Fold each of these.
Amino acid sequence: MPRTSVPKCRPRRPPERTAFPQAGPRRSSVRPFFFPPLAVHLQLTRGERVAVLVYGGLAAALWPSPLLGLVHAESSAVVAAATFFVTGFLALGAYAAGRRPPEVLRRSLVLAALPLALLTISLAWRANCGYPQGLALYLLFVTPSVALAVALTWALSGRPGSYPRTAFVGIGLVLAVVPVLLGPGLHPQLYSYNPVWGGFLGPLYDEELAIRPGLFAHRALVLLWAAWLVALGTWRRERRGARAGAVLGGAIGVAYLCAPALGIVTTYTTIERRLPARAELGPFVLHYDPSALPAHDVRAAGETLRYRHAVFTGILGVAPAEPVHVYLYPDPGSRAALTGARYTSVSPVWLRRPQMHLLQHEATPDNLAHELAHVFAREFGAPVLRASPAVGLVEGLAVALEPPSGLPAPAEQVAASRSLAPADAGRLSDGPAAAVAAAMSPLGFWTGRGAVSYTTAGAFVGWLLDRYGAAPLRRAYRTGDLAAAYGRPAEVLAGDWARDIARLAVGEDALALAAWRFAQPSLLERRCPHHVPRERRLVRRAGRALAEGDVEEARRLYGAALRHAPNYLPAVLGRASASLGAGAPAGAVAARLADVAADTADAGLLTLLGDARRMDGDDAGARRAYAGASAALPPFAHEARAALRARSGLPTESIRHMHTADPHTAALALEEIAGASPAAWSVAAARWAEAGEPERALAAVRRLPPAGDAGGAALRLSFAAHHARLAGRPADAARDAAGAAAAWRAAGAAATALRMEDRAAEARWVGSGL
């Protein structure tokens, strides 16, 4: 049989694969990608060119903002959200062209470096003091978001008849919103970690961000999800990778079970494990650390809360239906680690449990009243949110219900703003009515200067309460609609209030306070919004060392801060005080303080210089320093000025014991010399107070000789009232506070007198047993 020749089949040479071919026939020329640190050669597809334009436009839009126009947490969150969705659309096109996830991820990460490069360019015109931390946050936010987008689109695509784009956008939007509802929406925390945009780390007003271990755990969890989704997409296409997917799924499940331990969420159990003591005081439950907070402070805080509860019930006509849980944290670090709020007191009104979160040293009558006002307002807030849509009403009500602080009232400060330069008055430069209108919207309130927004809203809401009562305010609070509640347009109400403000007399105290407070820049005006300089961190550590009695460690840390910033005033003062207490030569300390005082007329610095000169035997120099300190105090600092006058009459040995690290040891030594120098009882009282012994502090105050002026007598009575309250003697506290009020009024300190009258009223209420 003849053989039939069969032509040999030559294998066709496969076309050269280009990285990321585009769907159409035209391709861009190969050129080096322009981000130098990643010097790779990319052939940009049409979609990638669009992505470059999107990223470039995004960075340019962020540049003008002082907060967003630099590399830090807020800009990283915005960029992470953008890169998630842009990467997802690019990845879907790449998978349709036959690409695999590793290559798509590499190219997407290179593209995501473009916003980083453009935001880094802003260093040319705007300081970014925290750039290393911002860079770390950028990588931590953006990289997992890009990886998740690459993995999610791989899992959604690859099967005919599916709608991966629609599914990707829908899932992405759910992932961007739902974690916020499940985190701060259900748990007592002020942070939220998000798989799409990274998350927010704490309250807006916290200067120092809370970088918690939970952030790293959460971003690692996002990468686990990405790996699992890649395994799922591979199994859908090729029916392999099931074992790896099962292992990754198990790891994800374990991570969610351990989320509180990892710090991804904070539960009530987690907080109460850190604050194990519990005190049930009427309508309040206090949680605190018994090793850090003495029992008398717990009792005093409970009495203040119960008194304010009764006062607010009478003013507002409502009361919380459930017990209010008050969490008192020993220091900012512990609160930041648990809730994400370092320096901001908060009352998350949207949670089911009424609650307040404060530092224990913030448990003063005005702070407790402010947060308690938020808790009361839950009862007539909008549904679900339990607050008002008008932010100015939320914070304005809390400010309006604060007790007298000893400073000019909010209305007086607003009236004083008419005498300030526009640059110093913030939004009040346009008039009180315009300022209060701006404070009603969330954007207007939070982008303005904090002191201006809070004070303006507080003065306006206080005026509404005084003139119209609580009923229309409750209706307006629920809806944010002033016109419907009061039957008059909001502009008319604000105008009437502004005319009443204009009729107020403005004193020297109010003018000085308004000039200082209203000139403080907002977060958006600050040079480096979230940067805490090294010298400030070192001084904080030194303060903790002093509190623990380790003077040498404190001096070392103060010295390190001064080497970094030689004239940083808190470090100068801290090291000088610690040195005087440790017995260092007073002359050398005085010489150093005098050098700094030549350029800085600071009251605290000049006071310490006076102490050092007294200890060096230079009484004339000490008197000059104390006089300079008194002149440097603002007009409203009546108590500080009275304390300076008393200080100048103290014996030298008392001055030295003022700076001794151990207050108990110092107080005992002062009592030994008080027989010959009765004025030493004042310092002994202060040191007993620091040692946490209010009974002995009160006994020392009682042994002081009569004061030679009205201010001194008022200061002594104020101090006695405070410690009588802590010692559990409400009748004595009421008597001394009333006497202090009369003495302060005689000394010309009307605002301080109002504060003491309020303390007297509280002590009388406590003594009545109500």
Note: Residues 131-156 form the longest helix (26 residues).
Amino acid sequence: MRDTVTANQESHLSTSKAPPTLLQGLSEDEVRSRRANGQGNTARLPASRSYAQILRENIVTLIHLILFALSGVLILLGRPLDALTIVAVISFNLVVGIVQEVRAKRALDRIALLTRPTAIVIRAGNEQPVDPGALVVGDLLVVRPGDQIVVDGRLVGQGWIDADESLLTGESDLVRKNTGDSVSSGSFCVNGSAVYEAVQVGTQSTAYKLTAGARTFRRVLTPLQQQATTVIRILLFLACYLGLALLMITTIKQMALLVTVQMAVVIAGLVPNGLLLAIAIAYGLAAVRMAGKGVLIQQANAVESLSNVTVLCCDKTGTLTANRLYVHAVQPCGTGEDELGVLLGNYAASVSAGNATTAAIAAAYPGQAQPASAEAPFSSTTKWSALTLADTQKVYVLGAPELLEPFLQPDSQLGEQAAAWADQGLRVLLFACYDGPVDLHDAGGQPRLQPGLLPLGLVSLADLLRPEARETLAAFNRSGVQLKVISGDHPHTVAALARQVGLAPDLLSVSGLELSQMEPAQFAQVVRDTTVFGRITPQQKERIVQELRAQGAYVAMVGDGLNDVLSLKGANLGIAMQGGSQMTRTAADIVLLDDSFAALPPAVQEGQRVVNGMQQILQIFLYRVSSFILLILLIPGFPFSPRQSSLVTLLTVGIPTVALAVWAQPGPAQGNKLLRLVHFVLPAILTGSLATLFVFLTAVALAAFRGLPEASVIATAHSTITVFATVCGILLLVFVAPPTRFLAGGNPLSGDWRPTILAGVLLVGLMVILSVPLGRAVFEIGALPLFDVAAIVGVALLWALLLHFIWRFRALERVFGIAEQAEPKKGTNPSRSMRKEESI
């Protein structure tokens, strides 16, 4: 929450007292009656989601229920180790997901627009402090400098205030409120004092509506998560199909219940729940990396989202600018520049209600505070402020030239400099004075000017741009990301600022008033083509974001004020500044801890790292699952027991996926993701399943030749293909991240030797398991002669060599006539992209 009152304001006697009033307010009986009728300010904000709902959504899924049920049956049938293996994997996945969502719930529940300040209410003619929750419709509340408006209402009786509504509207100028004007909850009184009547309380108040919208839980799936979800659904369908076929076969053959359950466990294990776990791990690692670079990741998938952004929407104040002004230049009018600087400095030091303008002047021209006998504070209504010095009785006025010009002396000449500065997007002020005392207020106490002003000089002020803004926006532009600047300030000013940070000089701008008068079709066209949007309300910001998403854009919204909350929640990705409001930070997916745009390009690289790592993980997942399905269909009997399946999964998927998530490298994706996935996985599946079938038939023939019983023949053959499938899956790891150009073919060259070294370590681990009786017993693998193990490794190496040449020469693509089409860069016309085969 921001400071809204200074020491000078507190000492300003003319505005620190409540206005004289004879208003009596409500009686206690009336308050009780209205509260009983539901007119109290007691609305409770809805919780984002309950803990029970989070647990239910994570645990009660079809695949989890199936696996838990099968685990229970295995325990009843005396196979507790099989059941324990299944439950352990599921539980680990569940814990990761539940912890992440509980953290999100707690963050959402902490959001509160109001900080529960004490309200001063008039009841039965007496002022008394009350909790805002005790207010009712019709209550009369006193507001003084620094007080927050706690319910929506309208001013009554005598008095006026200058309200700061920047947290609601995004506009930094103060708004003058007089008797009869409405005030909104969430705004602050900066100057003046008044009494307002509570009109909208509880769920009808502005504060409640904004807070309730910010607390709404949203689950936005990224393209990677959508891809993984689609794969899982397809494999779930295949698993159900195989399960139905298994049920029919076991019924016809009257197989034992234990055998049926074991087969069902293997089939259910084909659904790659671990794929989502691998994504969660990749997101977690990215969040840890970014924490050290000034970026707080509040939604796990936010880093990956940033790499998919096609449109970046940002506010002006606090994002492109540092929310500070500086003096650009001054032009004296009838006085020297040094004297003008002294007068400006003294004026800025003497005003009681400082703002960004006087702070900038004071920084450029330090001065001494002078005693004042009268003052008219600045407001957005008058666009000027004035001060009467007690010693000289001179009156100094600072304000917009177009509003002060009608009061200047007839022979005053300002020249063309003000217009030239305005065309550059600078804020221009005129500093003038009266030689003698002048009444600054009319009979009703409202500020006014009189003719006879003598111009002293023009002052131009510029927004302080964030130093990293230009470079960061240029980096996004090179990536094809389109920028939209959406602000509450005037479109002309915002457009000039946008040009300063490097946007096209011929950019288009539009105001919120113009947008509100457009038909839906015209609105959509303007949103698509326009870069700068000015005088935009929070609701219009949200509508612009929604329209961009409806047009197929992947939208990121950067903001720092409460007026940005709705659009942050509506975007694919919400980014907040640490220096912004608490509500904005909590509603965002990413928080820039140092308020620096410079952290965004590294975040994009982290997103690329996540996507590239998950593409590799998806490749080995699909190979393992698809090859298992083909082997179940091709090999007589059932090829794997649950424990054998666990060994293959552990060494070919479980350990490698974690390592690949850690070692993933940044960089843009090369080629079409889907075609690249097919290019890698399809040859591996077809050749791997045929090679495994060949090994199975050979093992059966050799076991029969050695005179083994029929049951031992099948058991030996199953052990053989378990080892072979494990070796093939481990060797595939080398081609997923090729360390040399020779090994590249399935995937582009990575130059990283760590996955290859891991493959060697896993092969050694497999040999250790096969050589230790306990290891073989745990995974139900029979003792294999050394010659058989060597033959298995040799055949696996030949398979890997054959697969490598199929990749290199794109054999399957040539057979099916498929040529990979390079993905067009973001922002380019896909129709102009050239079809080409990627060289390896």
Note: The longest strand covers residues 152-164.
Amino acid sequence: MGKSRFPLKPSYNSPVILTFALAACVIMAADNLSGGRLTPRFFATYPGFDFASPAFYFRLVSHALGHKNWAHLTANFSVILLVGPMVEEKYGSGPLIKMMLITALVTGILNAAFLSTGLLGASGLAFMLILLSSFANHREGEIPLTFVLVVILFLAKEAVQAFAQDDISQFAHIIGGISGSLFGYLKGSRRAGK
């Protein structure tokens, strides 16, 4: 008789995505313990540029780890934990970290430059992963129909909702979606050109 498959042991199958999710949960818990003072200070970015502040540079990227509340965090990470492991397996952990950092940085800089509101949360990265996943089987000279449909369903909706008065940053969603599209196309073209 073969070796039993039970008990099953957990596998840290997606190190970048799992570490990102755990870090966001730890920060949310720490923010709750601090009475809501931690996230606004270190994990949110604000309009304008404060070049003299070291925290300003950190927050340009760290805003992706901060969340308004547990519901906000859960909404973002239900998408990230669903799509992220497949994307990490497809593109690799190192390239995924770079794509996430670039997307967070670009979103933070553009938010500081052009918007009059603060920004926090991983929704831009969630949209990056959604669009990036639609390029999973991209071939040179083709545009995946899944990509076209995702753009229509997600980004068009975000563009329309950008005019709504709410606490959701459609701007971050759009920048994340554009980033994911560019990364997917460039990575797919590079693979196909080999």
Note: The helical segments are 15-33, 38-42, 54-62, 70-91, 93-114, 123-133, 145-161, 170-192.
